[in-house]
Write a structure and sequence with these properties.
53% of the residues lie in helices and 10% in strands. The chain is mostly helical. β3, α5 and β4 form a beta-alpha-beta unit.
């Protein structure tokens, strides 16, 4: 019991330091990448005149819903028939500019605002939509344990499991996210961030 209490205390301190670091880093990144934000915004507007920013409800820490922000990479009527899994690169709903943004992960830049607000962290389980959480919970109720964490922009599951377009991938991602929950810390976060940076630089798709 003493070991568990000590470990929990370490997590509280670590989570507080992580939140502070994330807030400072995201604020600086928003300023640094502001020209890139403007370029993406203009490119999307010029292509079809639709909204450049896309938001969607996701579930975050404590099971609370929040709005995640991305640069729109799909046509404006992409989900008019209901929920849709993240599409493959060949999906006709992905716009020409959107395909470029996705391939370079530029569509996720607005999530820096989510990190600054405290909805998300740089590293953590990817936030999921309520509809798919319900489906996952039917197969594995352990998903609820992830509510202890702020969802993240990147994770080992994101890097190695790719887009979760099947239930099999969702459950595999859950196993990896639960591993992160138990082993989280500065060293693991640093490794994930370095691997994410190298994957983007060398054009690895994930």
């Amino acid at each position: 019991m003493k070991h568990s209490t000590t470990k929990n205390g370490q997590h509280v301190v670590g989570d507080t330091l992580k939140r502070t670091t994330d807030a400072i880093a995201s604020a600086g990144s928003l300023v640094l990448f502001s020209p890139l934000f403007l370029a993406c915004y203009i490119a999307i507007k010029l292509e079809d005149g639709g909204p450049a920013i896309y938001s969607q409800e996701r579930i975050g820490r404590g099971g609370r819903p929040f709005r995640i922000y991305k640069f729109r990479s799909m046509s404006t009527d992409a989900e008019q028939d209901g929920e849709a899994l993240t599409p493959h690169e060949t999906d006709e709903r992905v716009t020409r500019v959107g395909r470029f943004l996705r391939s370079h992960h530029l569509d996720e830049l607005p999530q820096l605002w989510n990190v600054l607000r405290g909805d998300m962290a740089f590293v953590g389980p990817r936030p999921e939509r309520p509809f798919y959480i319900q489906q996952i919970m039917k197969h594995d109720p352990r998903y609820e344990q992830l509510y202890q964490l702020r969802p993240g922009v990147t994770s080992d599951a994101t890097l190695y499991n790719g887009y979760t377009d099947t239930m099999e991938k969702m459950l595999r991602r859950l196993d990896m996210d639960l591993y992160y929950l138990e082993h989280r810390g500065w060293w693991l976060d640093t490794k994930i961030l370095v691997k994410t940076f190298l994957s983007i630089v060398f054009g690895k798709r994930f």
